Every structure is written in structure tokens, then in C-alpha cells.
């Protein structure tokens, strides 16, 4: 009997990803990384640390290069903005010269983590989990590769070449492990009373639904991950969200029991540590990146670069300083100066513009910032006279607001019908009502007649027209060549 005998043959294959080149260097003497202070203190000043085990010993341990891992749950096939906080934490370790191991839960994703959940997580299909593991492995490497370029561009003083992150799936060690072997290796050292006391378990035990044995055992699987990575890769630090504190402690406890280290005086030597990040929420209190309408992806094919940029541009004043510290490598003193400038003229939203520029460059590169700004000009600025067709196509590539159609259709169809076909409005009657209230615009000029069509001389650069409903919804129509 195998621990994961229900897996298909395909889902038991080891994940192999050919990583993009991430030949970057650790920053030598830049203000942004505060290399004169230790890494943990730097992370604390920026707001990354919620809890840490044996803080002073961890700081001492990190004076020499270590291996650190971050678990990523394969519940979806793409990364979203909620992943930025743990990934940036991992990236700071990487920039200080530590080996980083993003661990995708190919095995644990089949079980489900009860942490932070009030109800049982539905079991995922094995093939779907494997697909997500493959996609996330590539996405994590792409993010860290782009983050490396972002860092090296901003801070040219570099030294100590660092290695490419080593992506792993925990299916690698769980796929052939028998149930009896797991019980004798891990279960033997687990105390049920300690497991029950974990917050993720105790909260569910107090609920009406309770907790299944499958989810109850999850902390042992994650504990074994830490043990295997410590044993085989020298990993001494695990990063996780605040809801992972109990699982991290379980891993530390297992390592201490299976691989104890005793000092010269006979006392126990602490050699592994845990760092958790705070729960990040939106101003409304929703979990950052997870709530309905807030799952902004880091993949431009799921969330356009423009929408990604706008998400951060809409950050309220109460949160912009926090996000600048967490999601950029800007020096803290530069952030404070930017916030002071913003407070003097808050109507300019200069801090939000800085945040949107920096995070978009981090995730989508310099070209992404250029595209997002040009898309903003097309969709929100009044002067459209200088617009060029190719720039429009480049800026809105993959964006649902861009519609390319034959010229005869563009010029011979009423604006009412064009707006409906482009899903700018839901119905002909809705479009007609907008026209009667002066709320439907073509190139920022109100449409005056329901029978009105686009005139040839209205096309920007002979091919482009912007149709807007109200103040926020718009589409860009481009005639095909």
C-alpha cells in the first residue's frame, strides 16, 4: 500500500523545469538592502516578519550562506498578487546570497491544508495538481528571474554570483513512500496532543464540521518536507504565511527528533528556523489577492499589464507606504521622502504612481511599465490626437478592451451596436439610454444620435477609435489592415 496510491502514473513523474537564466549578483553596498544591518532586521523594518523562531540565533546563523525554502500551494495554475509578499521575502534571502528553494506542493496539494480555513478543502484531481505544479514552477522562476533584472538595473554595485533557485515538488519524496514507512518515520515522533493544540486544528475541532484525518495529518506531511530539505539540501529556514506557524513548528520539532544536534556542553543546538509573514489584507479587510474581484494575476495573459498597473495605482493613501516597503526594493529613506512629497500634494497621487511603476517593472519589466502608461493614456486621458495604431496594439495586447474588426464593420455599424458587440454595454436599450443622457462617447465626444456611425475622419491614425460608457468603462476598436 502506498501513501499516495491514488495518484495516476503521470502525476507521479518528477517535475523538471528548465529554468530561465537568473545569473544575477548580490547587491554589495546599496541603501535598499541595508547590507550594514542583518537580513532579519531589514525584513522587520520593511514589514515582512510576523513571527520568527529564536530570532538572535537565526540572525547569527544567516551570517553565512544558508538554504531557505518557501512552500507554494498548487491550488491554481498561476501566481497572483497575494503571492508577492512571500515571494519577495524569499527574494530578499536570495539577494543576500542564500540558496532558495521554492517548493511546489505536488503531494500536499492532493491532501489540502486546513490552515486558515473554516471548512474542508475539496480534494483536487491528481492530473490537475500536476498541471498546476508545472505551471507554477515556471511562473515562480519567471518571477524571480524578472525580480533579478529589476534589482540589477536599479543597483549596479554587485558581487557574489548567486545560483538559480532550485524548484522542487514534494511529490519527489512522497510518491514512493509507503504508509507503514511514513508512520514509522514521522508518525512515531508526533504527539497527538501537540497536533491537536495547533491553531489550524483546534479551530476546526471547535467548529460544527470538525476536521478529517486527512487534513489533520497535513502538518506531518509539511514537517517531513522540512526534514527532507534539511537532510538533502541543507535547508535551515522555512518561510510561510502567518497561518503556517504551526506547520513550521512541526517541521522544526521533527528535525530535532530525527537529526538532533548537541553542543559541546551537552545542550540542544538550534539549527533550523521558521519565519512567517503577516496576513496582508485590502483596506476592506479581504485577504490580499484572494477575494472575489481581487485575484489580480502576475500572468499578463490572465490579468492584463494595464489592469495590473491600475490595481496598484488605486491603492489608498492608508496602504501605499506599506506596499512600497514590501513590493519594491526602494530604499526606506526614499520611500519616506516619496510619502512626504505625496502628503504635500495628495491629489497628484505621486506615491501611488511610484508604487504602480515599481511593481509593474518588478513583475512585467520596463516594457510593461511603458505599455501600462500608454494604455492609461488611451483609456483615461482626453488628448488622443497623437495616438499611433501600433502603439495601441502593443499596449493593449491580450486586453479584453481591445477589439480588432474589419474597417467596413467599424464604419457601417451603428455606435449602439458596436458598443453592444464589444460588451461595453449589455443591450441596445442600455446604449440608447446612455446616449440620451450624454453618457456614451466616441474619442471623448458625446454621441448625439442612436443612428450615429463612426466617420472615417474620426479614426485616430486612420484606424483607432475609443468608445466610452460613463467615466470608467471603455473599449478600443481598431480596424484590421
Q: What does this 3D model show about the protein?
A:
A six-stranded mixed beta sheet has the order 2-8-7-3-4-6, sandwiched between helices. It has a five-stranded mixed beta sheet with strand order 9-13-12-10-11. Strands 1-5 form a two-stranded antiparallel ribbon. It has helices spanning 39-46, 55-61, 84-95, 126-154, 171-174, 179-185, 192-197, 199-205, 213-216, 218-233, 245-258, 305-313, 317-327, 332-344, 350-380, 389-395, 407-412, 415-421, 428-436; strands at 25-27, 51-52, 67-72, 99-104, 158-161, 168-169, 235-241, 273-277, 402-405, 440-442, 445-446, 464-469, 473-479. The chain is elongated and about 80 Å long. By secondary structure, the chain is of the alpha/beta class. The protein has three domains: 10-277, HUPs (Rossmann fold, 3-Layer(aba) Sandwich), CATH 3.40.50.620; 305-380, Tyrosyl-Transfer RNA Synthetase, CATH 1.10.240; 402-479, RNA-binding S4 domain (Structural Genomics Hypothetical 15.5 Kd Protein In mrcA-pckA Intergenic Region, Chain A, Roll). The protein is built from 19 helices and 13 strands.
What are the salient characteristics of this protein?
single chain, 481 residues, alpha/beta, Rossmann fold, Tyrosyl-Transfer RNA Synthetase, Structural Genomics Hypothetical 15.5 Kd Protein In mrcA-pckA Intergenic Region, Chain A, 3 domains, 6-stranded mixed β-sheet, 5-stranded mixed β-sheet, 19 helices, 43% helix, 12% strand, elongated
Amino acid at each position: 500500500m502506498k501513501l499516495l496510491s491514488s495518484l495516476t502514473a503521470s502525476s507521479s513523474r518528477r517535475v523538471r523545469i528548465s529554468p530561465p537564466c537568473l545569473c544575477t549578483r548580490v547587491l554589495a553596498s546599496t541603501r535598499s538592502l541595508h547590507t550594514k544591518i542583518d537580513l532579519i532586521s531589514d525584513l522587520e523594518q520593511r514589514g515582512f516578519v510576523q513571527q520568527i523562531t529564536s530570532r538572535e540565533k537565526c540572525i547569527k546563523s544567516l551570517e553565512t550562506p544558508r538554504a531557505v525554502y518557501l512552500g507554494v500551494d498548487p491550488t491554481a495554475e498561476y501566481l497572483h498578487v497575494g503571492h508577492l509578499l512571500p515571494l519577495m521575502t524569499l527574494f530578499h534571502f536570495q539577494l543576500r546570497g542564500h540558496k532558495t528553494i521554492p517548493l511546489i506542493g505536488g503531494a500536499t496539494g492532493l491532501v489540502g491544508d486546513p490552515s486558515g480555513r473554516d471548512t474542508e478543502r475539496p480534494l483536487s484531481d491528481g492530473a490537475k495538481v500536476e498541471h498546476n505544479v508545472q505551471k507554477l514552477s515556471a511562473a515562480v522562476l519567471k518571477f524571480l528571474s524578472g525580480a533579478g533584472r529589476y534589482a540589477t538595473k536599479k543597483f549596479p554595485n554587485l558581487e557574489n554570483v548567486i545560483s538559480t533557485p532550485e524548484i522542487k515538488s514534494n511529490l519527489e519524496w512522497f510518491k514512493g513512500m509507503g504508509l507503514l514507512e511514513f508512520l514509522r518515520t514521522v508518525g512515531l515522533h508526533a504527539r497527538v496532543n501537540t497536533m491537536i493544540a495547533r491553531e489550524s486544528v483546534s479551530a476546526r475541532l471547535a467548529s460544527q464540521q470538525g476536521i478529517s484525518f486527512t487534513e489533520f495529518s497535513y502538518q506531518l506531511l509539511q514537517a517531513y518536507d522540512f526534514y527532507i530539505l534539511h537532510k538533502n539540501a541543507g535547508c535551515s529556514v522555512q518561510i510561510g504565511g502567518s497561518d503556517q506557524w504551526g506547520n513550521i513548528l512541526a517541521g522544526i520539532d521533527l528535525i530535532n527528533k530525527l537529526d538532533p544536534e548537541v553542543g559541546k556542553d551537552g545542550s540542544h543546538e538550534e539549527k533550523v528556523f521558521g519565519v512567517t509573514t503577516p496576513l496582508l489584507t485590502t483596506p476592506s479587510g479581504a485577504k490580499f489577492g484572494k477575494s472575489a474581484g481581487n485575484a489580480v494575476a502576475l500572468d499578463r495573459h490572465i490579468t492584463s499589464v494595464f489592469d495590473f498597473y491600475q490595481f496598484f495605482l488605486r491603492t489608498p493613501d492608508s496602504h501605499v507606504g506599506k506596499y512600497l516597503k514590501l513590493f519594491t526594493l526602494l530604499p526606506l529613506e526614499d520611500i519616506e521622502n516619496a510619502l512626504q512629497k505625496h502628503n504635500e500634494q495628495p491629489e497628484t497621487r505621486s506615491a501611488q504612481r511610484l508604487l504602480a511603476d515599481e511593481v509593474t517593472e518588478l513583475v512585467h519589466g520596463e516594457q510593461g511599465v511603458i505599455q501600462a502608461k500608454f494604455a492609461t493614456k488611451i483609456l483615461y486621458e482626453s488628448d488622443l490626437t497623437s495616438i499611433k495604431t501600433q502603439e495601441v496594439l502593443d499596449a493593449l495586447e491580450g486586453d479584453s478592451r481591445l477589439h480588432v474588426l474589419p474597417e467596413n464593420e467599424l464604419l457601417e455599424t451603428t455606435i449602439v451596436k458596436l458598443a453592444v458587440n464589444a460588451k461595453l454595454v449589455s443591450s441596445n436599450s442600455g446604449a440608447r439610454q446612455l446616449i440620451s443622457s450624454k453618457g456614451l462617447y466616441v474619442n471623448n465626444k458625446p454621441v448625439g444620435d442612436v443612428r450615429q456611425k463612426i466617420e472615417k475622419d474620426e479614426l485616430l491614425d486612420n484606424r483607432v477609435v475609443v468608445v466610452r460608457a460613463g467615466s470608467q468603462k471603455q473599449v478600443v476598436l481598431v480596424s484590421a489592415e
